[in-house]
């Protein structure tokens, strides 16, 4: 049995030398503890009688061949844990964190730096102004008048009936713009009012203003100061938005 073992070892050395003659040495990838037993003791005794070095390394993984020369190094297999074959080291994590912080800072600068113009919300367009019926004879300049200035002008009109009509026209136009309701070119005040949604928030106050104006303008009823003050208050409620309580 010993002669067969030496013959197998010699054959391995010769075969490896022929196949990997260009290498400078072999590399032990993984070693194992030597086996124990009577056969090993007899093998080592026979090796010493034949003047063979008995320092042995039992190898389970070998790169190169024993005939290529002395061992280059004794390395251990990589046993670091990996997830799904992909390793992430501390350097990669640090680099990703730096990139993330840089992008975050860039977004914050674009949002708040430089007056925040890059990512600022686009300005909302002004509410679309629908055309007034032709019979109302309202100019664009009058429609663009500041609401408080307009109310002051109406309050100063000596003809209370004409003042009520002018006030009603502006309140109806506000209602049309606010509820996105279009009026026909030939609409009367009553026709325009009928087009408004019944659930519009100021529907009831506007209805009272319409009735009072029709009685004054078409019915010839005199407008007393109390009634005129109520009409102006309705106009102020519609045309001048209330400021928030916390403002």
Furnish the topology, listing elements before pairings:
Layout: H1 2-19, E1 26-32, H2 38-49, E2 58-63, E3 71-74, H3 90-112, H4 140-143, H5 147-155, H6 160-178, H7 189-195, H8 203-217, H9 225-239
Parallel strand pairs: 1-3
Antiparallel strand pairs: 1-2
Helix pairs in contact: 5-9, 6-8, 6-9
Describe the structure.
The chain has 247 residues and is mainly alpha-helical. It is 49% helix and 7% strand. Strands 2-1-3 form a three-stranded mixed beta sheet, with no helix packed on it. α5 (147-155) packs antiparallel against α9 and α6 packs antiparallel against α8. The longest helix is centred in the middle third of the chain and has 23 residues, at 90-112. The chain is rod-shaped, with a radius of gyration of 50 Å. The model is unreliable at 2-23, 74-79, 81-87 and 114-120 (pLDDT under 50).
Features:
single chain, 247 residues, mainly alpha, three-stranded mixed beta sheet, 9 helices, 3 strands, disordered N terminus
- Radius of gyration, in Å, reads 50 Å
Helix content: 40-55%
- Strand percentage lies at 5-15%
Cα(first) to Cα(last) distance is 104 Å
Give the low-confidence spans.
2-23, 74-79, 81-87, 114-120
- What is the count of DSSP helices, taking H or I runs of 4+ residues? 9
